[in-house]
Amino acid sequence: MSRSTLFWGVILILIGALLLLNNLGVLDVNIWSLIWPVFLIALGLWILWGIVAGPRSVEAEEVVIPLEGAARARVRIRHGAGRLHVDAGAGPGELVAGTFGGGLDHRVRREGNLLDVEMHVPSDGFPAFVLPWMWGPGGALDWSFSLNGEITLSLDLETGASDMRLDLTDLCVTDLRLQTGASATDLTLPANAGHTRAEIRSGAASVNIRVPSGVAARIRIKGGLAGITVDQNRFPRMGDTYQSADYDTAPNKVDVDIETGVGSVEVR
Predict the structure, then answer these.
(1) Both 11 and 122 in a single domain?
(2) Are 177 and 127 within one domain?
(3) Sequence-separated (6 or more) residues with CB below 8 Å from residue 50
(4) Is 159 found in the same domain as 37?
(5) Are both 148 and 252 inside the same structural domain?
(6) Of the residues 19, 37, 53, which one is the last residue of a structural domain?
(7) Alpha helices for 24-106 (secondary structure H)
(8) Residue 19: predicted pLDDT
(9) Are 164 and 144 in contact (CB under 8 A)?
(10) What distance in Å separates the CA atoms of residue 252 and residue 157, rounded to the nearest whole number?
(11) Beta carbons of 247 and 224 less than 8 angstroms apart
């Protein structure tokens, strides 16, 4: 039995015992008002333990997903806790090539010249990112893989407590959707993809976005308690939008729509 399973097993037993004692009348308190704080305290202790102890090694799997002659691809990535690094560099005839800590489950479906691929952490059919025992030491699932830079791509990412490095500079990504929780994200947008549309939704997160030189941008940001920094020398503010002066005529441009909760957003 892993330390993570044991730790969260004890927490669940503790919460169950409190509920039982309350139902039996032994405790005369509002147990439901205690459960959420107990869970948050336990989660915080578990994350701190992970930082101090460092991640334990997990089995890594080398995976190549063939391109199968497709001209376009839609790639959906479901990743929980750990590090996620994505860049260009898959070889000819490959859509995806890389190393996947904890393994990879994937599904491939062909629709004409479009290859539809879904990638997720093996979890016996249950999403790993909602299992708290996957968030601490020993649960870090590090993925590092490359995509094919010669075809048009649509990327859809859902992540949990992740440290992400997404270098799309040399990829032809025309549609990007990123939904993330408590994470740190470093995103470089495509340099030569024509028109890219990016939608980013984050919780308690740090999001750093780089727009390559020569790429125009139109940026909209909605932030709750987030600190927002935008390079207004490149992207002057126009009402609630930041926009390059040459946006309308630029051959390569990005539309970026960001909605964030607590954290920080920087665009440069």
Answers:
(1) no
(2) yes
(3) 135, 136, 137, 139, 140
(4) no
(5) yes
(6) 53
(7) 32-53
(8) 72
(9) no
(10) 23
(11) no
- Residues in CB range of 188: below 8 A, 6 or more apart: 166, 167, 168, 169, 209, 210, 212
Q: Clarify whether residues 37 and 104 are in a common domain.
A: no
Residues 10-64 have pLDDT tens digits of 766 777 777 777 777 777 766 556 666 666 676 667 666 655 555 555 678 999 9
Which of 18, 35, 53 is the C-terminal boundary of a domain?
53
Strand partners, 226: 263
SS3 119: strand
What separation in angstroms does the CA of 163 have from each of 89, 140, 144, 249, 260?
21, 10, 12, 35, 16
CA of residue 12 relative to chain centroid, distance:
27
Residue 38 lies in domain: 3-53
pTM score: 0.75
- Residue 154's SS3 state is strand
Q: Residue 163 pLDDT > 80, yes or no? A: yes
- CB proximity list for 40: less than 8 A, separation 6 or greater: none
Residues 261 and 244 in one domain: yes
Provide CB contacts within 8 A for 56, sequence distance 6+.
137, 138
Q: Does one domain contain both 146 and 229?
A: yes
Determine the 3-state secondary structure of 39 from DSSP: helix
Q: How far apart are CA 35 and CA 107, in angstroms?
A: 38
Q: Work out how many domains the chain is built from and give that number.
A: 2
Regarding whether 103 and 10 lie in a shared domain, the answer is: no
The span from the CA of 33 to the CA of 38, in Å, is: 9
